[in-house]
Amino acid sequence: MDKIGVLVAFKPLPYLEQELTRRGCRLFRLWETPESPVLEFCRQNAADIQAIVGNSNYGADAAMIDALPKLEIVASFSVGLDRVDLPKCKERGIRVTNTPDVLTDDVADLAIGLAISVMRRIPSADKYARSGAWKKGEYTLTTRFSGKRVGILGLGRIGLAIAKRAEAFDCPISYYSRSDKSHPNYTYHSTPVDLAANCDILVVACALTEETHHIVNRAVIDALGPKGVLINIGRGPHVDEPELVAALVEGRLGGAGLDVFENEPHVPEELFALDNVVLVPHVGSATIETRTAMADMVLGNLEAHFLKKPLLTPVV
Amino acid sequence: MSSSPSLTAAGVSITTSNGSSLSDLPPILVLRPLSDAWSSALSAKFTVISPSSPLSTSTHAALVSAAYNKVDPALLDQYPSLKCIATTSVGVDHIDLEECRRRGIQVANVGEIFTKDVADYAVVLLIDVMRRITMSDRYVRNGLWMTRGDYPLGSKLRGKHVGIVGLGSIGSAIAKRLEAFGCKISYVSTKPKPTVKYKYIPNVYDLATESDILVVSCSLTKETHHIVNKQVLQALGKEGIIINIGRGANIDEPELVRCLVQGEIKGAGLDVFENEPDIPKELFKMDNVVLTAHQSALTPEAMSDIIQICIANFEAFFAGKPLLTPVMAD
């Protein structure tokens, strides 16, 4: 990939940055110049940028694509492509790749970890233990996870991996999906509200599209109810965040485990005082093993494109 | 129910709202304080007899607890008609099982009531340490995601070797859960279990050598006191993690603390300690440990299950059927 100009939209894994450099790429580090507007940066370097490496927060919208006439490929360091204007890429003949499968396990592990952590109030219990309060009394009882009804929004790779793990805890599984998948063991619900009304733990595991924007809205939150728990390992905009915060603060929702937020890294501060929420900083795929595998996939896709070989994981 | 039972309602016949006479319901001698939940559950099916009642010496069944009662020859002499004792605990250290056997008294504990909740807790502590859930939650709440950027990366679960110390009901439940995450399970146990598909390793040292994560889920006996010692921790190694939902004394705690302080093991998830409620203060500063106050079994569902299993055991006894969760003298 000698002298290929690559716009890196976010601060990358050191391994990824080293490998891009080692293979001869010229890196345009968008993340290093936060003051400079994105479009200005693009125009200044338009003659050289042939590839973009984006992630779940930084992709390629129509304006960026228009500003980069030499752009040939967007290789996203994520599986979600809600930040990439896919129709525009298709129109311009720009290839788009993502990183499916390698991160499925980590995201599913986190979803279940968050669910049990919320039910058993682990961060709060840890804080209690460290405070010395145990000498004065026991921590409160915390709700059992095993056997609770798990409802999954989206039964794709990640949704199925979550279901498989939850089954090991004897959790009955139900789901909402654009169509009934006729799964032998899992119950289909034709609307998100119906799913929420019939589960104890609702997990968001679908892709973010126009249709699924705010799929978890006031009606769904009300249906989930004061004993219900919401787990979001999808995208912040899947959930109407102000509604979620109000429901949690007012006790209309039982709890939440959140890996993603509408405006990362901003997390609504009203949540900080609550014992029934667990808040993590978009770490769904954040293991050294998975991030390295994702980097290899990005590198593999870029190399395949510039060597005119078949892409590993093309979406467009 | 319109009438309420009382520990002093000795021998008084009370009619319940459904018309049956309380004195028709089989009597249970209650030798421990009762919460409202216990009172109403028991008196729906039994007549609650207090120790001060003249009926206490002719009652055949009794409810005891580990915290309040010592079932020894003296107590059994006080209540000579007892034929069935149910304790609200798993442990039976407080009951002279041999004496009960000699007198023809059946004993029931609560069986495997805590298995699910304790297994869930072991799994969540393991995921938490590997994926840094509690620590990154703290990071977010301290506003550091805004100012410092991403939290350091965690470790993937799939493919990791998990060594389970003690493959009883809880150890097996932990194994079943972790298999779904793609972990490879090995175990050490008093005897190998030929029907089990996991790899049996003859001693804890060898298990630790092979394991990325050690989960302690055995009971505390002379043999298992400090079963995780300095050599085992060294064998677990710098990348190793230990989870303890057994008993604090299963691990040499000062040695564990030293290993964590010196970075000789990578992290720990601990629900139990040698000198509860004291937790070694050196652990409070660490972000590679998760600490909880011996609460793995403490769910409202388990508390309700305890009541249900005791009632079920008493019902079986009065129906002349085998107890559901009998405990035998060795």
Automatic annotation (TrEMBL), chain A:
<dbReference type="GO" id="GO:0051287">
    <property type="term" value="F:NAD binding"/>
</dbReference>
<dbReference type="Pfam" id="PF00389">
    <property type="entry name" value="2-Hacid_dh"/>
</dbReference>
<dbReference type="InterPro" id="IPR006140">
    <property type="entry name" value="D-isomer_DH_NAD-bd"/>
</dbReference>
<dbReference type="GO" id="GO:0016618">
    <property type="term" value="F:hydroxypyruvate reductase [NAD(P)H] activity"/>
</dbReference>
<protein>
    <recommendedName>
        <fullName>Hydroxyphenylpyruvate reductase</fullName>
    </recommendedName>
</protein>
<feature type="domain" description="D-isomer specific 2-hydroxyacid dehydrogenase NAD-binding">
    <location>
        <begin position="112"/>
        <end position="284"/>
    </location>
</feature>
<dbReference type="InterPro" id="IPR006139">
    <property type="entry name" value="D-isomer_2_OHA_DH_cat_dom"/>
</dbReference>
<keyword id="KW-0521">NADP</keyword>
<dbReference type="Pfam" id="PF02826">
    <property type="entry name" value="2-Hacid_dh_C"/>
</dbReference>
<dbReference type="InterPro" id="IPR050223">
    <property type="entry name" value="D-isomer_2-hydroxyacid_DH"/>
</dbReference>
<dbReference type="InterPro" id="IPR036291">
    <property type="entry name" value="NAD(P)-bd_dom_sf"/>
</dbReference>
<dbReference type="GO" id="GO:0030267">
    <property type="term" value="F:glyoxylate reductase (NADPH) activity"/>
</dbReference>
<keyword id="KW-0560">Oxidoreductase</keyword>
<keyword id="KW-0520">NAD</keyword>
<feature type="domain" description="D-isomer specific 2-hydroxyacid dehydrogenase catalytic">
    <location>
        <begin position="42"/>
        <end position="315"/>
    </location>
</feature>
<comment type="similarity">
    <text>Belongs to the D-isomer specific 2-hydroxyacid dehydrogenase family.</text>
</comment>
<dbReference type="InterPro" id="IPR029752">
    <property type="entry name" value="D-isomer_DH_CS1"/>
</dbReference>
<dbReference type="GO" id="GO:0005829">
    <property type="term" value="C:cytosol"/>
</dbReference>
Automatic annotation (TrEMBL), chain B:
<keyword id="KW-0520">NAD</keyword>
<dbReference type="InterPro" id="IPR036291">
    <property type="entry name" value="NAD(P)-bd_dom_sf"/>
</dbReference>
<comment type="similarity">
    <text>Belongs to the D-isomer specific 2-hydroxyacid dehydrogenase family.</text>
</comment>
<dbReference type="GO" id="GO:0030267">
    <property type="term" value="F:glyoxylate reductase (NADPH) activity"/>
</dbReference>
<dbReference type="GO" id="GO:0051287">
    <property type="term" value="F:NAD binding"/>
</dbReference>
<dbReference type="GO" id="GO:0016618">
    <property type="term" value="F:hydroxypyruvate reductase [NAD(P)H] activity"/>
</dbReference>
<feature type="domain" description="D-isomer specific 2-hydroxyacid dehydrogenase catalytic">
    <location>
        <begin position="60"/>
        <end position="327"/>
    </location>
</feature>
<keyword id="KW-0521">NADP</keyword>
<feature type="domain" description="D-isomer specific 2-hydroxyacid dehydrogenase NAD-binding">
    <location>
        <begin position="124"/>
        <end position="295"/>
    </location>
</feature>
<dbReference type="InterPro" id="IPR050223">
    <property type="entry name" value="D-isomer_2-hydroxyacid_DH"/>
</dbReference>
<keyword id="KW-0560">Oxidoreductase</keyword>
<protein>
    <recommendedName>
        <fullName>Hydroxyphenylpyruvate reductase</fullName>
    </recommendedName>
</protein>
<dbReference type="GO" id="GO:0005829">
    <property type="term" value="C:cytosol"/>
</dbReference>
<dbReference type="InterPro" id="IPR006139">
    <property type="entry name" value="D-isomer_2_OHA_DH_cat_dom"/>
</dbReference>
<dbReference type="InterPro" id="IPR006140">
    <property type="entry name" value="D-isomer_DH_NAD-bd"/>
</dbReference>
<dbReference type="Pfam" id="PF00389">
    <property type="entry name" value="2-Hacid_dh"/>
</dbReference>
<dbReference type="Pfam" id="PF02826">
    <property type="entry name" value="2-Hacid_dh_C"/>
</dbReference>
